[in-house]
Amino acid sequence: MDGEPLVKFDESIDTEGALVVSCFPTVSMVSNIVAHYLVEHLDLQFVGGVRDSRLPAVCLVQDGEPMPPIRFYAGEPKCNVDGCDKLIVVLSDIQVHGRLALPLTEALFEWSKNAKIGMGILIDAFAHGVESPHELIDDDDSDETLLGIGAIDSNRKRLTEMGIPLLKHGVVGGMTGVMMGEGRRRGIDLCAILAEANPAFPDARAAARIIEKLDMLFPAIQLDPDPLLEEAARIEEQIKAMLSHQLSASEEMGEDGGPSAMLYG
Q1: How sure is the predictor about 236, in pLDDT bands with cuts at 50, 70 and 90?
Q2: In 3-state terms, the chain is what percent helix, strand and coil (to 5)?
Q3: Could you give the count of Cα atoms lying within 13 Å of 147 in the half-sphere of its Cβ?
Q4: How far is CA 227 from CA 20, 87, 231, 233, 259, in A?
Q5: Neighbour-count burial of 21, counting CB atoms closer than 10 A to its CB (0-12 exposed, 13-18 middle, 19+ buried)
Q6: Residue 74: φ, ψ to 5°
Q7: Phi (first) and psi of residue 119, to 5 degrees
Q8: Pick the residue with more confidence: 222 or 49?
Q9: What is the mean pLDDT of residues 176-189?
Q10: Of the residues 39, 64, 90, 244, which has the maximum number of CB atoms within 10 A of its CB?
Q11: Distance between CA 223 and CA 204 in Å, rounded?
């Protein structure tokens, strides 16, 4: 029988009242883009990770240093949420599926309770019309590019004040679905912000829309989404050039041109 996930966090870090931004990847890697942006622009430091035998046998290497696939970063930017001035980012480089989602959620909630965390925000994305257990399937025909979900009334009020429409009807899968369901059951101060994203490639534009909303929480530090928009434009131009080259090659060869692998970076 598998054991419970083990959360390892630097105990010297003051976590009482902290805001936790949790980023588990689904559509278009939007949550990862947001997480890496926050870590870099708010100068957050690596402070821990998660261990479990069901996680893939991989590590991320940064500047020669191995890192766990699910890890924590922390810092103290001035926050605008109930006086909090501490930020913790949960960054995952892997998708969490199936049997691990609930025990990992329980482990993270147990850690957050012991750490006296103040509030949690889940970052995610969705693609209209794409049916997947790890994506949002919005059935209210909304044209909104950002949608929110609140575990408790105060969360839903805060999302509305931030100009984020609430999801009226839908199905949310993956870690976001499990964490929000458990958050409601336990009455945890937890909400989710989801951006509509292009599922074909990493969507920096969708991440920029979320950054613009998170900027409202950090009045002392400007979270500038322009670098993400510039990155989005670069990726789009790269894709257009690739498709144009592929089409030209197919026409010259008199072939239809089959699917090809594309690298974005």
Answers
A1: low
A2: 35, 25, 40
A3: 25
A4: 23, 22, 6, 10, 31
A5: buried
A6: -140, 155
A7: -155, 155
A8: 49
A9: 96
A10: 90
A11: 14
Q: Which two tokens stand for residue 211?
A: 């950054």
What are the backbone angles phi and psi of residue 228, rounded to the nearest 5°?
-70, -35
At 166, list the tokens. 């609430």
In this prediction, what percent of the chain has a pLDDT beyond 90?
55
> Taking the alpha carbons of 58, 59, 64, 65 in that order, is the dihedral positive or negative?
negative
Tokens encoding 96 = 């969490």
Residues belonging to the chain: 265
SS3 169: coil
Query: In 3-state terms, what secondary structure has residue 164?
Result: coil
Cβ pair 62, 93 in contact under 8 A: no
Pairing of strands 87-92, 45-51: unpaired
Amino acid at 236: E
For residue 217, the one-letter residue type is L
For residue 182, count other CB atoms closer than 10 A to its CB.
18
Is this structure's pTM higher than 0.70? yes
**Coil, strand or helix: which one is 171?**
strand
